Amino acid sequence: MSIITSIIRDAIKELNLILAPEDQIVIDSETILYGKNGVLDSMGIINLTVILEEMIYEKFNVEIALSEYISSSDMTEIFKNIETLSARILALVENKQK
């Protein structure tokens, strides 16, 4: 498991702390985060994004603007699952570290 995947899992755990028990997210690579059959609504995505941006900054000392993708046409694909989200975050972090 990559560091970024681990951060995403930790962010979901943190998000679960504020969600009602029946709304908590199962942390699984197959879990669809957003889109058709997704477990998060738009407010959940915003909360997850804020948590992730903070965690990425703490870990890599790099500011990423994951929130820019919330209203983009790529949103459903980026936030589809942990794997797709991890790939986008990795690209953003690598781009900032250049």
Can you walk through the features of this model?
- There is one protein chain.
- The chain is mainly alpha-helical.
- The protein has one domain (3-96): Non-ribosomal Peptide Synthetase Peptidyl Carrier Protein, Chain A.
- It is 55% helix and 0% strand.
- It has four helices and no strands.
- It has helices at 3-18, 42-60, 75-78, 82-96.
- The protein is globular, with a radius of gyration of 12 Å.
Determine the CATH topology: Non-ribosomal Peptide Synthetase Peptidyl Carrier Protein, Chain A
Number of domains: 1
Mean pLDDT: 92
Note the main sheet: none
Write the layout of secondary structure elements.
Blueprint (H helix, E strand, L loop, with lengths): L2 H16 L23 H19 L14 H4 L3 H15 L2
Q: Could you give a quick summary of the protein structure above?
A:
The chain has 98 residues and is mainly α.
Spell out the key features of this protein.
55% helix; Non-ribosomal Peptide Synthetase Peptidyl Carrier Protein, Chain A; mainly alpha; 98 residues; globular
